[in-house]
Known about the structure:
Helix content: 40-55%
Strand content: 15-25%
Shape: elongated
Structural class: alpha+beta
Mean pLDDT: 95
Radius of gyration: 20 Å
Number of domains: 1
Number of helices: 3
Low-confidence stretches: none
Largest sheet: 2 strands, antiparallel
Strand order of the largest sheet: 1-2
Distance between the termini: 41 Å
Number of strands: 2
Amino acid sequence: MDVAAIxxxxxxxxxxxxxxxxxxxxxxxxxxxxxxENLMDTLDAIERRSEPTRPFxxxxxxxxxxxx
Length: 68
C-alpha cells in the first residue's frame, strides 16, 4: 500500500470556520480506488459475519457437479 499516493488522492472539505466536514476521494487515483474497494469488502464482511457458513469442499463439489 502506497500511503503517499493515497494521501495525494484525499482532500478534506471544510466549512467557513475551517472545520473538516467531508472527505473528497480522487477515484482516478489507483491507490485510492484500491483503498475504497478494500473498505467496501470489509463492510460486506462485517454485514455478513452472522450468516451461516458452509465448508469450502462442499461448495466446490456443488459447483463442479453443476458444471456439466
